[in-house]
Every structure is written in structure tokens, then in C-alpha cells.
């Protein structure tokens, strides 16, 4: 199961690269067309915006899995193991609730977004806003898995120290400021 999960997230990372590359190519081509040939591709403007939305929301799931989101390590570092576990549980409960609300809100808007079309490409807007279903579900599943491990006592010492920011080198801490 872990191998399948790792492969899925490797696929997501490749998808992020493709989206960022596609966005950069479309914007660059449009700039060249506008300034060199006094024309442009309106499709590239719309698609690059949609790619940016997808990039952001898919990247949020990948970053959450890799513990890459912003944290307040200076406060958590003051606690011992039990305090840190409580903070880890509380933060994942908050993330779970917010992710579920996000998923539910996207689900409630599904029909409205599916019936609307993009002005240039004619794509159904659910292709843009529907990414909230993926993000809400993905972050909820990760938070649920973590909560299960934390509550059953399966959190590793490395994970707890990572949550408190103790695994960072001086150089890595300097990069964060």
C-alpha cells in the first residue's frame, strides 16, 4: 500500500512539473506573440490561469503530505513529547475539519460550476473549481491517517521532532526567515 501511495504522489509531482511548464510556456509564447507580432492567444491566458489553480491546489496536498506547510515550531518546541502529540492531534483535527468543509462546499457548488462554461475555451468550470474535491479529499485522508497513527501511539520520534522543527539544520532554518 505504501508503494502505491508513493507512486501516486510521484505522479502528482510530475503533474505539478507539467502544469508549471505548460503555464510558463503558454505565458512566454503569449508575450512573444504580443510584443513581436502584435497578436496573442486568448486560450493561453485562460488555460494558464486554470493551470495555476490546479498547480496550487494539487501542490497543497503534496506539501501537506511532506509536512511542508507553515508551522509554529517555536511554540511547539517548548512542549515535551505529550504536549507535542496533543498539538499534532489538534492541528490535524483542525485541518481535517477545514478540508471536509472545503470538500463539502465544492460538492454543493458542483452542479452550478458544471453548468457554467469558460468564456474562451468553453470548458465546463467544474474542471477548474472541481479541484477542490481532490484537495479536500486528499488532505482529509492524510489528516485521518495521521490522526489514527497519533491516537494509537504510532507516531515516530522523528515525526514528533519534525513537527517541533528540531530536524532542521541552521541553514534550513535561515532559509525559512
UniProtKB/TrEMBL annotation:
Bilayer topology term: Multi-pass membrane protein
Annotated Pfam families: DctQ (PF04290)
Keyword terms: Cell inner membrane, Cell membrane, Membrane, Transmembrane, Transmembrane helix, Transport
GO biological process: C4-dicarboxylate transport
Keyword Hydrolase on entry: no
Localisation per UniProt entry: Cell inner membrane
Cellular component aspect of the GO annotation: plasma membrane
Transmembrane segments: 12-35, 47-64, 85-106, 126-144
Highest taxon of source: Bacteria
Single annotated GO MF: transmembrane transporter activity
Record-annotated Tripartite ATP-independent periplasmic transporters DctQ component domain positions: 23-151
Signal peptide positions (record): none
UniProt record similarity statement: Belongs to the TRAP transporter small permease family.
Subunit structure: The complex comprises the extracytoplasmic solute receptor protein and the two transmembrane proteins.
Summary of the function given for this chain in its UniProt record: Part of the tripartite ATP-independent periplasmic (TRAP) transport system.
Name by which UniProt lists this protein: TRAP transporter small permease protein
Protein's organism: Rhizobium deserti
